[in-house]
Amino acid sequence: MILAHAVRQVLHTALAAYRDQPRTVDYLRHQLQRLDEPLRVAIAGKVKAGKSTLLNALVGEAVAPTDAGECTKVVTWYRNGPAPRIVMYPKDGEPEALPVVRRDGALEIDLGGATAERLDRLVVDWPAQSLRSMTLIDTPGVASINDGVSKRTVRFLEPDDDTPTEADAVLYLMRHLHVADAEFLEAFTDQGVARATAVNTVAVISRADEIGAGRMDAMFAARAIATRYRSEPALRGLCQNVVAVAGLLAHTGRTLRQTEFTALTSLAALPREELDASLLSIDRFVRAADPAEARRDLVRRFGLFGIRVAASLIRQGTVSPGALADELVARSGLGELQRVLQIQFGERRDLLKARSALLALDRLVRTDGDARGLGRQIERILAGAHEFAELRLLSALRSGMVSLPEQVSSEAERLLGGAGSAHSARLGLPENAPREELHRAAFHALRRWQGQAENPMFGRRAADACRVVVRTCEGILAPN
Q: Phi/psi class of residue 177: alpha, beta or left (left: φ > 0; alpha: ψ in -120 to 50)?
């Protein structure tokens, strides 16, 4: 990739320029190393937005604590590793390995008396397929009653000039669109070197099953709300997409136990009216059994919505734990989120990594001085790399800074990679479309957008936008 090569080259130039500053050299080597690491995705949101639960669903194991313990107030990294390992990094002092303890299938993190205020981060290495391509970073809740907890997340995602953010992309969780959510996303909007934060942020309605009081049609209602939010002016310019997910249902589906399937089968055998009546509230459901502890555990793991869905699926003929687990995950919306993460983040991995490196280098240059004209080299990369021009235009179209007719704007967003970076996705064709069809569609798109660029009804900004799309079409047509 030409962009990646250019970014590596400017980092090596910076290493030579700052060779007599050991701390800066270590910092630059870290940025070079980041280019080869998995994409770093931070999970952020208000307190009780379901961050840890969704992280567990994405990993497929209960590795993130979901209670309100001290460790949930610390920025925690979850990386792929050959064996389970937990390391605590104090703000002052040497890193310390913590014991790896699992209880009832869940990882427990004991800080050994250390307080969140003393810690910079926790790093959990865990052997998981899902973490091979993406490092997940769980952050404390924003808008917390405890101001210190909120500030830890804000500092991580919006650091000062000396410490640029270590996340390449952000998954922002919300229960509904609250003014605090929009304000946080707006504050997070990058005004620096890449000027395109919206393209590395996806918003998630993370407790979608709670919409409509957990009725069977809750996910349909949640998906309708997510669709409306995608065109909401307050969000459109601040994030790339909005997805509805029932995080608890997704996590439970991926970690379903045989004993739970047996208990749910017994519930499904009850008269429908009796079960429905007991599911009107948690208290009523728990009181309907003696002892109540088993039902309390089911509520903790599934929620009332999950119990309703599972009982209905079993009545309809789901006869094994594996089949039920697959159905629960499918109905949770997790698959759609994983697809969006692959399209918006995975397919842009090298671009987002390059962006992070340039942001870090730009902050260094502005803080420590422009040695060897590094600032000019950064600007030259930004001006010459069409990938960044695409990101800026995509962000401008979504935020309304550049205005095109609705149908024209929709096609522009698609061609710029708004629905995926693959040529087929850009051209609106099936993934397995033959090469000849791709070439023909790209050629027609090029001719169409060359005409748009010469449209006398468009102002200068709109015409410039059309020329960026023309360059995109030319790139699709160019031989690999």
A: beta
d(CA 108, CA 69): 10
Per the CB < 8 A criterion, the answer to whether 421 and 343 are in contact is yes
Burial 6-15 (b: 16+ CB within 10 A, else e): bbbebbebbb
Who contacts 119 (Cβ-Cβ below 8 Å, separation ≥6)? 74, 88, 89, 90, 91, 111
Please list the residues that pair with 172 across neighbouring strands. Answer: 44, 203
Report whether 206 contacts 49 (CB < 8 A).
Answer: yes
Residue with tokens 């235009």, as numbered in its chain: 393
Matching residue, tokens 């948690």: 282
Whole-number Å distance between alpha carbons of 476 and 424: 10
> Domain limits of the chain?
37-249+335-347, 256-328, 402-477
Helices (H), 112-190: 147-157, 179-188
- Quick check: bond before 291 cis, omega within 30? yes
Cα separation, 346 vs 406, in Å, equals: 28
Q: Tell me yes or no: is domain 37-249+335-347 CATH 3.40.50.300.
A: yes
Hey, what's the torsion of the CAs at 285, 291, 293, 294, to 10 degrees?
-80
Instruction: Tell me the pLDDT of the chain (480 aa) as tens digits.
Output: 588 899 999 999 999 999 999 999 999 999 999 999 999 999 988 888 889 999 999 999 999 887 766 677 889 999 999 999 999 999 998 999 999 998 887 898 888 888 888 898 999 999 999 999 999 999 887 755 455 555 666 566 654 444 456 888 889 998 876 666 666 666 655 444 344 456 788 899 988 988 866 788 889 988 998 888 887 776 777 788 899 999 999 999 999 999 999 999 999 999 999 999 999 899 999 988 877 888 999 999 999 999 999 999 999 999 899 999 999 999 999 999 999 898 888 888 888 898 888 888 888 888 877 767 888 888 888 877 898 888 888 878 877 788 999 999 999 999 999 888 889 999 999 989 999 999 999 999 999 999 999 999 999 999 999 999 999 999 999 875
Ranges of beta strands (E only) in 38-130 are 39-45, 76-80, 85-90, 96-98, 101-103, 106-108, 119-126
Rounded CA-CA distance 334/57 in Å is 8
The residue whose two tokens read 């064996």 is 83
Nearest to 236 by CA among 435, 397, 20, 116: 397
Q: What is the rounded radius of gyration, in angstroms, for the C-alpha atoms of the chain?
A: 24
Quickly count helices (H) and strands (E) in the chain.
21, 11
State the residue for tokens 């009545």: 315
Whole-angstrom CA distances from 267 to 263, 281, 456 are 6, 16, 68
| Helix, strand, coil share (%) of the chain residues, nearest 5 | 55, 10, 30
